[in-house]
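Field log, afternoon session.

UNIT: design team B
ACTIVITY: writing a sequence onto a fixed backbone
BACKBONE:
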């Protein structure tokens, strides 16, 4: 046996900074500076190699961001932020746009048929890669869908997606605030925390979460919010969704953790 044998299966891993929760101009609560070009340029300036677009209940602006990013980086992951019946926000990320579209169609059926009032809630703008307005989404994307946390989780897992309850340390619209605990048997790939500097406090209150993977994201609704102090970091053998999934599972040396942002 060669003395090098044990090195054969160890891949070269590269560090990628990630922001897996970004809203665009499609979210009624997001600023009009959250267009595809601004988001991709900001990611490049900040050294963010992986971004996920996670508007409320729609993936309609993902193609424009992906088109602007081209071959990347950043890698653009299609996502949706769902608000369940329990008013819990769940970050749902998918391997490709077709799968995300299929999930979005299901979610749309479960949204209350309320029309947006741009004067009250803000415009919901769908754009192309050149940032030309294609149309205004008329159904209000804010609000809860008629699905439980468990039902949404089932649909995400069925589609090989990633389920990450959003901003669990916030006092509202979060799994831990609204339900009080992580339901036993619920498959989550990670939990998102808004203020990672307070993770010890969270783990003191919820000691059963000590073996769960935590990520942090900007949840940016304004461009300046993308520049966070802490960032999720992946160590991957390639820039693909499959590699990201391996990292959440801690497989073959891949890993995901929270670090201070490297602005170089
Ligand atoms: Zn949210
Ligand atoms: Zn959000």
């Amino acid at each position: 046996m060669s003395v090098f044998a044990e090195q054969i299966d160890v891949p070269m891993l590269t560090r990628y900074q990630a922001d897996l929760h970004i809203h665009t101009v499609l979210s009624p609560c997001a600023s009009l500076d959250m267009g595809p070009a601004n988001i991709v340029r900001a990611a490049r300036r900040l050294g963010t190699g992986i971004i996920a677009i996670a508007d409320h209940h729609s993936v309609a602006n993902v193609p424009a961001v992906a088109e602007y990013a081209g071959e990347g980086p950043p890698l653009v992951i299609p996502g949706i932020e769902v608000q369940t019946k329990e008013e819990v926000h769940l970050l749902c990320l998918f391997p490709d746009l077709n799968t995300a579209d299929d999930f979005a169609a299901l979610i749309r059926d479960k949204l209350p048929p309320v029309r947006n009032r741009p004067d009250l809630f803000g415009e919901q703008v769908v754009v192309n890669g050149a940032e030309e307005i294609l149309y205004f989404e008329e159904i209000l994307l804010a609000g809860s869908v008629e699905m439980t946390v468990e039902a949404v989780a089932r649909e995400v897992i069925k589609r090989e997606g990633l389920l990450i309850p959003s901003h669990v340390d916030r006092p509202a619209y979060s799994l831990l605030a609204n339900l009080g605990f992580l339901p036993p048997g619920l498959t989550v790939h990670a939990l998102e925390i808004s203020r990672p500097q307070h993770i010890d406090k969270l783990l003191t209150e919820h000691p059963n979460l000590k073996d769960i993977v935590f990520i942090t994201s900007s949840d940016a609704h304004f461009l300046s919010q993308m520049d966070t102090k802490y960032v999720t970091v992946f160590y991957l053998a390639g820039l693909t969704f499959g590699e990201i999934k391996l990292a959440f599972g801690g497989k073959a040396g891949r890993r995901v953790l929270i670090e201070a942002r490297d602005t170089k």
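LOG NOTE: The CA atoms of residues 40 and 69 lie 6 Å apart.
NEXT ACTIVITY: expression trials, pending approval
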